[in-house]
Amino acid sequence: MSFKIDRQSVGELNLMGKFRQGSVYYIFNKVSTRIGEKLMDEMFSHPLMDAAAINRRVAIFEFFGKEGIAFPFEADQVALMREYIDSTGGKSQLATTADTYLLKLLAGLMKDGRYKNTLLQLQATIVTLKKCYGLLERLKRDKSPLQQRIDALLTVMQHKDIRKILDSDIYKAMSTQTVAEYDFLLRNKFNAEMKDVLHFIAETDVYIAVSFVARERKFCYARAAEKEQNMFHATNLRHPCITKAVGNDIRMKEGSNVIFLTGANMAGKSTWMKSIGIGMYMAHIGFPVAAAEMVFSVREGLFSSINVADNIAMGYSHFYAEVVRVKDAALAAATGEHLLLMFDELFKGTNVKDAFDGTLAVTRGFSEYNNCLFIVSTHIIEVGEALKDLPNVQFRFMPTILEGNVPKYTYTLQEGITEDRQGMMIIENEGIISLINTM
């Protein structure tokens, strides 16, 4: 079973886009190697659904952050090692030796560059292995959470054949026989082990890069609990991509699993909901979260409806697209899975009466799914009054402060239902009415 999140939710939360400034991925894209980047892609695309696995990954990130370990490898040398190890031919020692002597001969007779390239790749591999051995010994001394993995890799490194390679001096000329011997060991006999070493280097690249971001931005690591607890607590949770973002607290649990959020337009409702979704997603991949602290029960999926657009290709109006989105969420919730569901400004594509009735009906309906965490926002504040009989609904709002006739927004969550009605004031402040009257 995999974590369920669709393309629309990924887009609304702006999760992906490694080179796109403003995306969540961009914040963490600090890896040094291509293999590290590939592993980062895999982690970002495959959230974990086991609380123990999430907490194990968190412990590794925390360890690297605490120790402040610098990435000891050179990206170009790692790339050369990867090319070298990936070009295995599964040959015998005799065939490898014959091929090496042939390439050496061709290099002298025809200026063939393949022998020189092999030598460069071999030298880069030896340098990288030496650095990896040093890192493994340090991690063993520091009692990292990767102890079993480190012991297994050290066993490989301490094998007499690999030890002989590690003890060699790459600055001294290698005989053709030595090149052939090392080539057979690294690309044939120990090829699977060398690929595992490369994967460890990729892991290290990600661990160091992500833990650096956590320290630099003062993010925390979330603690995962089993899904049955159906809870989500966070302190000073904020949007990771907004400079000096205002943080807020959230506390959802069994019997209090619905948040009804109100506030004027521009008060910060959408940004707060995105902050929640991003925090929950990042917690599931074990990455740091923009918060002071966070504890959550594992979800089986995340479903948002924040920036629903019409679909001209399918003939959907904005309102009908909203209806389809709610239907998709209802089908997901009906499976009995533990989900996080978020709806921002439901049914804004229709008239106020239908929007009121629809928002009320949908909120009441989803409130019955006690295994889900449900957040809905609206500026139709009258819906809140009709929901006060539901014991599991929390009422929160984003306030608007008036300074004269100018609205100011604190982006700080408060308990209750907003009474702000500044829409007409904003229209008047922009001089729209007077402009129309003078035409």
How would you describe what is shown here?
By secondary structure, the chain is an alpha/beta fold. The protein folds into 2 domains: 7-29 and 220-438, 3-Layer(aba) Sandwich (Rossmann fold); 75-212. It contains 17 helices and 12 strands. Strand 10 (400-403) and strand 11 form a beta hairpin. Helix 3 (34-45) packs across helix 11, helix 5 packs across helix 7 (114-141) and helix 5 (75-86) packs antiparallel against helix 11 (191-217). The chain is elongated, with a radius of gyration of 29 Å. The termini are far apart. Residues 310-315 have low confidence and may be disordered.
Count of individual domains: 2
Estimate the helix proportion, in percent: 40-55%
Number of strands: 12
Structural class, judged by helices and strands? Answer: alpha/beta
Q: Strand portion, in percent?
A: 5-15%
- Order of adjacent strands in the largest pleated sheet: 6-7-8-4-9-12
CATH fold description of the largest domain = Rossmann fold
CATH C-level category of the largest domain: Alpha Beta
The averaged pLDDT comes out at 88
Please report the distance between the alpha carbons of the first and last residues. Answer: 62 Å
Q: Output the CATH homologous superfamily of the largest domain.
A: P-loop containing nucleotide triphosphate hydrolases
Low-confidence stretches: 310-315
Taking all Cα atoms into account, the compactness measure Rg is 29 Å
What is the CATH architecture annotation of the largest domain?
Answer: 3-Layer(aba) Sandwich
Q: Helix-strand pattern, N to C?
A: HHHHHHHHHHHEEEEHEEHEHEHEEEEHH
Largest sheet: 6 strands, mixed
Apparent shape: elongated
Helical element count? 17
